[in-house]
Amino acid sequence: MGRLAGKSAVVTGGARGIGEGIVRLYVEEGARCIIADIDVEAGEKLEAELAPNAIFVRTDVTSESDIAAAIDAAILEFGGLDIMVNNAGVVGVIGHIDTTPLADYERTMSILVTSVFLGTKLAAGVFKKQRSGVIINTASTAGINGGLGPHIYTAAKHAVVGLTKSVAVELAPFGIRSNVLVPGATVSSLTAGIVTGDKDNLEDAAVRLGSKYVGGRAPMPRDLANAALFMASDESTFMNGTVIIIDSGKEVLSDRARDKFYPAE
Predict the structure, then answer these.
(1) Are 157 and 112 within 8 A, CB to CB?
(2) Average pLDDT, the chain
């Protein structure tokens, strides 16, 4: 029996990167997944590989009706919903704070924060009725520190952490757990686009990002998926409102140790 045998999940941003890693591992461990993503080509490709245990549903995570449709698909196709992973994300608007356009700010916040609100809201409605469920929200180390990402991305990821902790208090009496997955810079299409200019150049991204970690290896989607598996499983029953950081310990190093282990930074 897999660790998620008999369970079903919706994973937003599930067609690529960390989301894809989570979908793959969940299916390996017995779950059935809705791949909720706006990337049709990648989503359909992953569905073809993992079917019938994974189904792609084109999802704009800024649309309440689209997220509702993904959740409805899990209930219709798999008989219910047990796990909601709000993972979709972008870098969003970059640049100086005094020149950031309001429209770009609002679009970035919509993808990074509103999507998490919507996924949490809609999943909670299902979970409350059955008095069980797991919500996992993907933030970033930029969501617990400053200076690690663009301003709006940083603000959005802080908001994800805060929302998750607040919701955890409300939903706990219903048997619902809400936790935060906090990746360091992980090899994915998102980071590849930043460090190489090509979202598909994962090989070079792995080399460049690896130079920032002890041992020379950057976290891969599988590393984050392993944590998300634990968070979704019954093994983490008493974990609620918790932030799990996956970054090889960079966040806990003192300034002196950081200089020793990461002299290039």
Answers:
(1) yes
(2) 89
3-state secondary structure of 130: helix
Q: Which residue type occupies 7? A: K
Q: 31-35, 146-150, 175-179: lowest mean pLDDT where? A: 146-150
Helical ranges in 59-101 per DSSP H: 64-78
DSSP 169-228: HHHGGGTEEEEEEEE-S-SSHHHHHHHHS-TT-HHHHHHHHHTTSGGG-PPPHHHHHHHH
Of the candidates 178, 55, 159, 172, the residue with the CA atom closest to the CA atom of residue 115 = 159
All domains in the chain, ordered by first residue = 8-184+219-261 (3.40.50.720)
Q: What is the pTM of this model?
A: 0.89
Instruction: Name the percent of the chain in helix, strand, coil, to the closest 5.
Output: 55, 15, 30
Tokens for 113?
């924060």
pLDDT digits (tens, 9 = 90+) for 131-174: 999 999 999 988 988 777 789 999 999 999 999 999 999 999 99
Rounded CA gap, 250 and 145, in Å?
12
Instruction: Tell me which of 26, 105, 153, 262 is the catalytic residue.
Output: 153
pLDDT, residue 12, reads 98
Q: Which residue has the higher pLDDT, 196 or 254?
A: 196
Q: Is 153 exposed, middle or buried (0-12, 13-18, 19+ CB in 10 A)?
A: buried
Catalytic annotation on 153?
A: yes
213, 186 contact by CB (below 8 A): no
